[in-house]
Amino acid sequence: MAELLNQQERKAMKRLAEELGAAMSMEARGIDEEEQLQVRLQQQVDEGQLARLPYLEAVMKESLRLHPPASTLLPHFCKEETEVAGYRVPAKSMVVVNAWGMGRDESVWENAHLFQPERFVAGGPDSHIMLGGPSNYQLLAFGRGWRGCPGRNLGLTMASLVVANLVHSFNWDIDHGASTRR
């Protein structure tokens, strides 16, 4: 939510709200904004609708790229000597993967420091990347393979539902003139 709110023109927030509104068929009702807000507060996005929300999926991927649940993955031990990216890794070495650093690597991600969910939308430069997908290692928020997080699907589903319902149910904005100090 913080990344959606901190964008300059809130393009991602607006696009996500439009996608959610369309999925919940709000625009087709022809009611004014105040009535829409009342209806939205009564409706909730459910798990069955998540598959029809590709921009929400892109927002979640981008959020997990910038803010993985754990900054490093669980340590692994190297059974035999190997070479990774030109570095020699001796046998019996402990290897720790920096998921936070991988998500901000400028050699892998264009504009790595910016929140740009569009990179994961169909036709985007990284649309082929899946969370824990079989052929890519750029997005490892939950680890991979049999050592990956067993709660990945539940965690991603619940986080997606929370973000979807918060964006769908409320009109979000930040008062940029307000002081954050007390």
UniProtKB/TrEMBL annotation:
Heme binds at C149. The keyword Iron-sulfur does not apply. Gene3D superfamilies: Cytochrome P450 (1.10.630.10). Keywords: Heme, Iron, Metal-binding, Monooxygenase, Oxidoreductase. GO terms for molecular function: heme binding; iron ion binding; monooxygenase activity; oxidoreductase activity, acting on paired donors, with incorporation or reduction of molecular oxygen. InterPro entries: Cyt_P450, Cyt_P450_CS, Cyt_P450_E_grp-I, Cyt_P450_sf. Belongs to the cytochrome P450 family. This is Cytochrome P450. It comes from Adiantum capillus-veneris (Maidenhair fern).
